[in-house]
Amino acid sequence: MKTGLNRKGVTLVELMIAGSLLVVAGLVFLSSFSTIARAIRHSKMQSLSVVPLAVQKMEALKQLPYSRLAVTTAAAQAQESGLGGFSYDIAVYPPETIASGGVGYSRRVYVEKVRDTGVALSSVSYAEADTGAKRITVYIVWQENNKWHKYSLSGLYANSDVAAADSTVSGFVTTGNIWPLSGVRVEVAQNPDLYAFSNALGFYQLKATEGFYTLKAGRDGYYSQYSPVITLSQDQTTTQNFNLAAMSFGTVKGDVWLASGPVISMVMAGTSNNTEVVELYNPTTAPMTINADTLRLLYQKSNSTSLAEVSLTYRTNILPAQGYYLISNASTVQYGYYGVSADAVYSNSDLIAKNTTGGIGIRNPASSGYYDRVAWRTSSHNSSAPSALTEGTAVTVSGGLGDREQLVRLTYPGSLNTTSGRAYDTDNNSLNFYASHSMNYAVKNSADIQAALAGVPAYGAAVSANDGLSSAVQAEVSYVSGAYPKASFSLTPVSTGTWTVSISSDLYFATVSSVTVSANATVYIPNAVTAPAWPYGGVYSVRLVSTTENGFISGRVCNVYEAPLQDITVTAGENAARTDSAGRYLLAAPAGLATVIANAADVAGYKDYYATVSSQGVTVSTGQITGDVDFSISIVGHIAGRVTSNGVDPISGVAVTAVSNGLESGYALTNQAGYFTMQNLSSGTYAVEPQLDSSETASPESVAANVYTAGATVWTATFTVSNTMCAIKGTVREGGAAVPDGALIVISTVSLAAGPPVNDAALRGGGTVYYADSTRPDGTYSVTVRGSDSEITYYVYAFRNGARRAQAVTMTEAAAVTADFDF
């Protein structure tokens, strides 16, 4: 008999146990397969939908100009369970709902400022100054199998043109180390766009990036001051004070003379041996050739005799610069123990009228005009002197010229010395010559050289200095001993320091350098230390001997009420002058056509409370003064403001206009810091507004600015610019189900009478804007359109299989509206 251990087959219990094991194994396998399938599907969703949605948004945001990428200022905290919470923008970039593959996704954005600490990027409050870098994070949130999922993508958007203005420099500006000084412009020397003005307390403050800088503080009427190199550190405030010295000034005075040609320096009647003398002097710095083609000698004894020419024999043909030339009827003129050789001789023995009236003249054969003339008379009756040879009033000589008596030209107004050139010439014989009744003054020839102290008074000569404070003046007549005229100038105010003074008249000019001006003092030029130095100790004579190619422009600058304006800078090219107390100016300029500008904004002395005006096509002639170039300039103020993306972050390059009475009167671009300033606006009320793309809006949209105070800067507002692009979304269904094969969506601000508009030249050239899109495979669509500060109505059309549906939707800039359609 066999036991049960040897039997074949299984019992029912064993079958039941085995079946249970197989069921458990199968369940385990099915569970594992389901988990794997879910993981594959989740991964596939990320690959096909989630990642592209995030990348698409990231790239779109980075296509914006850096300054137009708004930093999140209004955020919400994610409430979905299991996501750990995160912040996202709810104002500028609100959440978007996107359907793809049967799943609804929420796309959210967060933009923040970041700073590189050297170890990592740290977040910075949106209220801080721009750091030059922004971090964008795009979140995609969706729900699957009753569980929330999140995918995030971060990217850095840096602007190499903007560094973080997170350093501050501030301080006080004073004068005299005590008194606060307002209106001082303090600027970064390395970047003048970074500046600030001191207020009524003298306080200023400006922002800059960290680094090493030099500051410049300046205001009209004060010497500019530069700071030492200062170090600005991140998030730190550096103090830099300034003390500006008021410009001190003095006065420069002197006399101006012209030296245009030879003069008669002496006439001497016959000596006991009937020797006569006509002596010439050359006051110029160039020698002159003497012959029959360049100089003729004429004489007349009285009005009853004829004017006659003297035939000369030339023994010397050169009249030296600042030298003499002797003409005589004897080859040698005896003066004391000395014999002086004549340079030219004539044979007449009684050319010089003795004991009667007479006259001598030297004439230029080329022009038939006289170089010089002198006549004398025996009484006070001028009619007895030869009129053809008289300049002004003839010299009165009691009884006429006698033996050894001389007429000697003065060396200086009212005086005659033996060491200087006989050159004083006012075209008046009675004032220019001294009658000596004996042979007291040596006769000179071409071997004698003497520097001239005087010449022809240069009335009207233009005098200017390069100090930057003074304005050109003209030399005017003054008198020595109340009778002898000269041309004198007084140039003031001339800033303290050492300068060069330029003097011009007609075709001639001179410069005097090393002119040192002290405060509240008068310096006369030329003097012992100027270049050139004075010609004679204590004689302050400037002689114009060099030729010039410049001319001059004169005029007057007044306000709109015809009151003169003093210290207004007037320019012509690189030349500048300032108006005097009568509003008059005299300005040197190259010959030709010139543009004259009053109160030019780019030169020293600019008055920011007056307008800048110009006159074009002014003709300047060499050595001449073009007069009556007058200006009437109005009082002006300035308008300032700022443009930002969120009240803090600047937007550069935005055009801002000021409109008055329908006309654009002011224009400016925002700088790197977002600030703008419109200069030179006449008094009045202006509408100030940024000029933006139609997809943008500003808050406030426009600001009224009242300009009524001269030179004042009117602050308007900080304009906050936001993007007004909005979305119109929806789903197209047919029979209650989303259409899978698409529909055409057309949106416009005008209604359509029939089907979709034809895309032709008329449509493209018209003023109506159309938006178009097609539905996605799930029947949804989303079209971005422009919003508005106020409500705007869009007409939304869906076209499918020859049929159409229409809706009108109303939206504003912050809206996202839905328009669903059923066919």
Q: What is the straight-line distance between the termini?
A: 87 Å
Q: Provide the helix percentage.
A: under 10%
How many strands, what sense, and barrel or not for the largest sheet?
7 strands, mixed
Number of strands: 70
Radius of gyration: 48 Å
Q: Please report the number of helical segments.
A: 3
How does this structure look, described?
- The chain is mainly beta and 823 residues long.
- The protein is elongated and about 145 Å long.
- Strand 3 (96-100) and strand 4 form a beta hairpin.
- The strands form 17 sheets. It has a seven-stranded mixed β-sheet with strand order 25-30-27-21-20-34-35. Strands 19, 36, 39, 40, 43 and 44 form a six-stranded mixed β-sheet that branches. Strands 3, 4, 5, 6 and 7 form a five-stranded antiparallel β-sheet that branches.
Write the layout of secondary structure elements.
Layout: H1 12-62, E1 75-77, E2 87-89, E3 96-100, E4 103-116, E5 121-124, E6 133-144, E7 147-158, E8 167-175, E9 179-180, E10 185-188, E11 191-197, E12 203-208, E13 211-213, E14 215-218, E15 225-226, E16 230-232, E17 237-239, E18 242-243, E19 249-258, E20 263-268, E21 277-281, E22 288-289, E23 296-300, E24 308-310, E25 313-314, E26 318-319, E27 324-328, E28 332-335, E29 338-341, E30 344-345, E31 358-363, E32 370-377, E33 395-396, E34 406-409, H2 429-432, E35 433-436, E36 456-457, E37 462-465, E38 473-474, E39 476-480, E40 484-495, E41 497-505, E42 508-517, E43 522-524, E44 541-544, E45 546-547, E46 550-558, E47 569-572, E48 575-578, E49 584-590, E50 592-598, E51 613-620, E52 625-626, E53 631-632, E54 636-644, E55 655-660, E56 663-669, E57 675-682, E58 684-691, E59 696-699, E60 703-707, E61 713-723, E62 725-734, E63 737-738, E64 744-748, H3 761-765, E65 770-774, E66 780-786, E67 792-800, E68 803-811, E69 816-818, E70 821-822
Parallel strand pairs: 8-17, 8-18, 19-43, 19-44, 27-30, 32-33, 46-52, 46-53, 54-61, 62-69, 62-70
Antiparallel strand pairs: 1-2, 3-4, 4-5, 4-6, 6-7, 8-9, 8-12, 10-11, 10-14, 13-16, 14-15, 19-36, 19-40, 20-21, 20-34, 21-27, 22-26, 23-24, 23-31, 25-30, 28-29, 31-32, 34-35, 37-38, 37-41, 39-40, 41-42, 42-45, 46-49, 47-48, 47-50, 50-51, 54-57, 55-56, 55-58, 58-60, 59-61, 62-63, 62-66, 64-65, ...
